[in-house]
């Protein structure tokens, strides 16, 4: 009987391929009796067949599991009458119903991966974006105003509780890291538009209040427009960035692009009792079923899952397995043993997965 049950939603497009790659690597790293992957239905394809994007039994399976691993969701043309995409609703519903308030997006340039930022080809980009994941502009999803085909509006919601807990998460994360590559300073950068909107000035004020409890960590501020320039000109200055939901969604893709793209970027959507792990990419239906997708983002998300689960369950074996998975990915990319297409190579999903599994050994 496996020690931990992982709710596993392969989803749409490349989701099944990258999920199976990750479960193979995680099983190799942890041993066969550690993780049981409980396959659950959900996503746009399932909605097209059944009318449900997140079936009750899938939600129950996620609620009762030790962690959730997700491939990707979304298919072009599968939309609700209001025009919003069905597939996205799968994990938006999980985010809100399981209260996964911290969307953790590591932005790290791995050895052997070329950054489009020439000044950082040799490395030096290593920060984490902590995106508030349960309110902000997303609080209005499904609740916006659409009147007489004439006016539409969505409200931005910032709460004290929502901001306090995501800011505390960011400062706690910075306390566990070793600081920004540029100067070794433990730092949390608050990304907002406090100069313009009261909601963001409120967000910043709450972050300042939380910072008062972390004297050893510097606080820094960057407006959402300005930070896009800094992320390209001085990414090594950043350690942890905390942002409202929509800003976090936008800057995390920009950050991913500076370290190899969405195919290499993992994510962990973490609450106090549950967490969902998935690559930051989408379902890429154009390359689905061709064994062409890079499994790296989902494999690294699996490593994040092991680390989170190991921390919660005080299971050092899981943390060690996470280290081994991350080291195996780094070795595979550094030595060019199997370079996925999105990083300029020609390796298939299977070839990358097998190379990582060999590097584990
Ligand atoms: C992300 C994605 C999602 C978001 C979509 C797929 C719902 O872009 O996780 O960054 O908008 O948050
Ligand atoms: Mn996004």
UniProtKB/TrEMBL annotation:
Keywords: Amino-acid biosynthesis, Branched-chain amino acid biosynthesis, Leucine biosynthesis, Magnesium, Manganese, Metal-binding, NAD, Oxidoreductase. Its EC number is 1.1.1.85. InterPro entries: ICDH/IPMDH (IPR050501), IsoCit/isopropylmalate_DH_CS (IPR019818), IsoPropMal-DH-like_dom (IPR024084). Residues 5-356 form the Isopropylmalate dehydrogenase-like domain. The keyword Manganese applies. SUPFAM superfamilies: Isocitrate/Isopropylmalate dehydrogenase-like (SSF53659). The keyword Chaperone does not apply. It comes from the Bacteria. One of its GO terms (molecular function) is magnesium ion binding. Homodimer. PANTHER family: D-MALATE DEHYDROGENASE [DECARBOXYLATING]. Belongs to the isocitrate and isopropylmalate dehydrogenases family. LeuB type 1 subfamily. This is 3-isopropylmalate dehydrogenase.
